């Protein structure tokens, strides 16, 4: 049953990307950014509803009161594809992403992503990529866009850790904008490169903003990593620990 549910959602996801992504790619250049972002939010919320309906995969948020009213740099744990959908649905519409440049080569999706003023990084470019992140990030922050960064740079399975890249912290240090840390356990339910979506409730925790004033990039990176990994360590690491009888197959 879990495989059938997962396949059904996968079909929904692909069709929704084709429909929304195709529309955004075609008309995006003539549509205001804010309106495009609202359309993307509808897509993301539709996918969260589909996950709950088809896969019985829900989520719970802790710390909504910590969402700032002003521009910030979001640094989130990266375990799954789920958070790329959920953050689009949950964050203010005026936000954009730091992502790997290869995503822009994906048919339909890549064309749609280009409409959202993303910071597309060549991860092999070293210092040039870091400079690009800081330069473009400062410009976007200055125009009122939140910037979303996955500091690990790739999806990391639950129970494992990867080094945090300093790019997001350097952007915070250079720009003076605060960091909003986000932790979750989405990988427990929707694994890296996995078709299976397990029933249960993903826990997402939003932390208090980390002030960047007077701190080095290394200090900001350590502070962000310590908070995120500390919260992740206390979240359930098995899907069955959060499943109710109604969610059982």
TrEMBL record:
<dbReference type="Pfam" id="PF01553">
    <property type="entry name" value="Acyltransferase"/>
</dbReference>
<protein>
    <submittedName>
        <fullName>1-acyl-sn-glycerol-3-phosphate acyltransferase</fullName>
    </submittedName>
</protein>
<keyword id="KW-0012">Acyltransferase</keyword>
<dbReference type="GO" id="GO:0006654">
    <property type="term" value="P:phosphatidic acid biosynthetic process"/>
</dbReference>
<comment type="pathway">
    <text>Lipid metabolism.</text>
</comment>
<feature type="domain" description="Phospholipid/glycerol acyltransferase">
    <location>
        <begin position="72"/>
        <end position="187"/>
    </location>
</feature>
<dbReference type="GO" id="GO:0003841">
    <property type="term" value="F:1-acylglycerol-3-phosphate O-acyltransferase activity"/>
</dbReference>
<keyword id="KW-0808">Transferase</keyword>
<keyword id="KW-0472">Membrane</keyword>
<keyword id="KW-0812">Transmembrane</keyword>
<dbReference type="InterPro" id="IPR002123">
    <property type="entry name" value="Plipid/glycerol_acylTrfase"/>
</dbReference>
<feature type="transmembrane region" description="Helical">
    <location>
        <begin position="6"/>
        <end position="31"/>
    </location>
</feature>
<keyword id="KW-1133">Transmembrane helix</keyword>
């Amino acid at each position: 049953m879990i495989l059938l549910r997962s396949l059904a959602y996968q079909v929904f996801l692909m069709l929704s990307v084709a429909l929304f992504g195709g529309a955004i790619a075609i008309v995006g250049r003539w549509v205001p950014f804010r309106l495009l972002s609202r359309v993307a939010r509808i897509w993301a919320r539709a996918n969260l509803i589909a996950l709950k309906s088809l896969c019985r995969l829900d989520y719970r948020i802790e710390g909504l009161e910590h969402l700032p009213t002003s521009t910030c740099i979001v640094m989130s744990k990266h375990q799954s594809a789920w958070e790329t959908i959920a953050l689009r649905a949950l964050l203010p519409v005026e936000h954009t992403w730091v992502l790997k440049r290869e995503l822009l080569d994906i048919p339909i999706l890549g064309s749609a992503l280009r409409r959202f003023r993303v910071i597309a990084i060549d991860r092999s470019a070293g210092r040039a990529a870091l400079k690009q992140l800081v330069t473009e990030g400062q410009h976007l922050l200055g125009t009122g866009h939140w910037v979303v960064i996955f500091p690990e740079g790739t999806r990391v399975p639950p129970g494992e850790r990867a080094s945090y890249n300093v790019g997001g912290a350097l952007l915070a240090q250079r720009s003076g904008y605060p960091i909003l840390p986000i932790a979750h356990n989405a990988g427990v339910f929707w694994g890296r490169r996995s078709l299976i979506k397990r029933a249960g409730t993903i826990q997402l925790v939003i932390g208090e903003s980390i002030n960047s004033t007077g701190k080095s990039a290394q200090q900001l990176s350590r502070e962000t990593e310590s908070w995120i990994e500390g919260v992740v360590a206390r979240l359930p690491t098995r899907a069955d620990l959060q499943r109710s009888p109604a969610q059982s197959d």
